[in-house]
Amino acid sequence: MKALVYTGPLSLSFRDEPDAVPRNDEVVVRVDAVGICGSDMHAYHGHDDRRPAPLILGHEAAGVAMTGRLSGRRVTVNPLVTCGACAFCIDGHSNLCSSRQIISMMPRPGAFAEFVCIPEQNLVEVPHGFDIVKAALAEPVAVSYHAVHIGLKASARPASSLTAVVLGGGAIGLASALVLAMSGCSRIHVAEPNAARRGTVSTSGPFDAYAPGSTREPKDSTIDLVVDAVGAGRTREAACLLVKPGGVIVHIGLLPGSGGVDVRKLTLREVTFVGSYCYTMVDFRETVAALASGQLGALDWFEERALCDGAAAFEAIDAGKTAAAKIILRPRPA
Q: N or C: which end of the chain has fewer CB within 10 A?
C-alpha cells in the first residue's frame, strides 16, 4: 500500500509500505480521509519520542471498513485503543487507561496510508448522507467536546451566562468555540495570531476573533472560562491573566514545558485549573452525532489535499501559509 512515512525531522516520504494486516480483534479500514494534527507536526519536528522515525503518522481518519461486522460500511475511527478492563475503563474514563495506545504512536502505525488496522470496537458508523471527509473531523472535535464539557461541569454557572475565551484558532480551538456555542455560551472570544486563521474563525461561528495583545483582547480577570488549545508557556500565562476569580481554565494543548502558570492567582482567586486529554467513546459517539446533525455548523473550515502531496501540506502548515484550521489528506482521488 502507499503511505506517507515520517522518516526524520522535517522529512516525509510517500512510498510503498507493507499492507495493513489485522491482528486479534482488529479490522482493516480503507482510509478515505485523514487529518493532519498538531501532534503530527510535533513528530515532524522531531519533538515526540513516542513517534520515532520511520513511522506512519496520522490518527484522524474516516473511510470504509473492509473486514469485520461493519464490512462495506462507512466509518470514522476512534484512534485511542484502551484495555477495557482496568478501573478507568470500567468507570467510563477510558481516556485515562494506563495501557492506552493510539494509532500513529509506536507500536501502532497510523492512517497516513491507504489502509489502517484498528480494533473493531473503535469504529463508529458514519450516518447516511454525511460527508466522509467531514467525518474525519470527529477525532479533533471529540477532543474539544470532552474539554469543553469538563470546563462547563467545573463552572458554577450555566453556559448561557458565561463569557469564554479560546486560546488558539486551529482545529482544536475552533472546535472548542463551536462546542461552546452549541452548549449555549453566547459570548465567545478566540485568540489567534495568524490573520488568515482569524478570518476562518470569524466566518465559522458567532465568535470575536482577535490577535493576542491587540486592543480587542479582553481585559484581565474578566473571563469565566478559558480553554487553552495551544498549551504553551505564553498561552498558560494569558489564561491566568484573563480568568476571573472563581473561573475555570481548561488546558488541552500538549506543547513542551510547564511555565506560565500563576499558582498564586489560582490559589488566591480560587481558580479551577484542569487538564483534558482525548475523550471517551461516549464523547466520540456524541461528537459524530452532533457533526452529522449540523449542530456544529457547516464544517467548511478545512482544506483537502492528496496524500501524495502530504509533505508539501506539512510545509504549508509550518510556514503559516494556510488559512484553514485543518488540512485533510485524501489517499485516493475523490
A: C
Residue 56 shares a structural domain with residue 132? yes
pLDDT in tens, 21-47: 999 899 999 999 999 999 999 999 999
Residue matched to cell numbers 470527529: 138
Helix axes 138-154, 171-182, angle to 10 degrees: 50
Q: Do residues 205 and 180 make contact, with C-beta atoms less than 8 angstroms apart?
A: no
In tens, the pLDDT along 184-211 reads: 998 999 999 999 999 999 999 999 999 9
| pTM (global) more than 0.85 | yes
Among residues 171, 146, 148, 154, the alpha carbon closest in space to that of 278 is found at 146
Kindly state whether residue 286 falls inside one of the protein's structural domains: no
Same domain flag for 174 and 226: yes
The residues pairing with 306 across neighbouring beta strands, listed in sequence order, are 330
Cell 469564554 locates to 164
In angstroms, the CA 123 to CA 30 distance is: 12
**What range defines the domain where residue 67 resides?**
2-137+299-330
- For 61, 98, 124, 127, the CA distances from 75, given in Å and listed in that order, are 9, 27, 5, 9
Is the residue at 19 inside a domain?
yes
The total number of structural domains that make up the chain: 2
Contact 68, 27 (CB under 8 A): yes
